[in-house]
Design goal:
The chain has 122 residues and is an all-alpha fold. The protein has one domain. The chain has four helices and no strands. It is elongated and about 50 Å long. The relative contact order is 0.16. It comes from Azotobacter bryophylli. It is found in: Membrane. It holds the Pfam family DUF423. Keywords: Membrane, Transmembrane, Transmembrane helix.
């Protein structure tokens, strides 16, 4: 679990920075300001949750039970669904409807699992 979440954190951190730079330099002239803001929202959530994955990887060794693993899995799912759907929307105008909110719920579930794991520490 430690290695997997560390690798995911590194991957999502790297690609988040790359996508942010791509948006700032390569998409500014191609996207409307509204779509550029939507793309940037995807990048921001990806980077925040890449750091959350890093924290989960490091904390999982000290938190009892499977809640930390669930948190990391939900953060990963949230990045893929939430940020991924925003990237697809802005780059291809493909609207995935319910996918973005499901990704947001995955983020919330990840934070809830992390909080419950902390609560169990006593």
């Amino acid at each position: 679990m430690l290695r997997g979440f560390l690798l995911l954190a590194a991957f999502f951190g790297f690609t988040g920075v790359a996508l942010g730079a791509f948006a700032a330099h390569g998409l500014r002239a191609r996207l409307s300001s509204e779509y550029l803001a939507v793309f940037q929202t995807g990048v921001n959530y990806q980077l925040i949750h890449a750091l959350a994955l890093l924290a989960v990887a490091l904390l999982a060794q000290h938190l009892p039970g499977r809640l930390a693993m669930f948190a990391g899995s939900l953060f990963t799912l949230g990045i893929l669904l939430f940020s991924g759907s925003l990237y697809l929307l802005t780059l291809s105008d493909l609207k995935l409807g319910i996918v973005t909110p499901i990704g947001g719920l995955a983020f919330l579930g990840g934070w809830l699992c992390l909080g419950l794991a902390a609560w169990r520490l006593g």
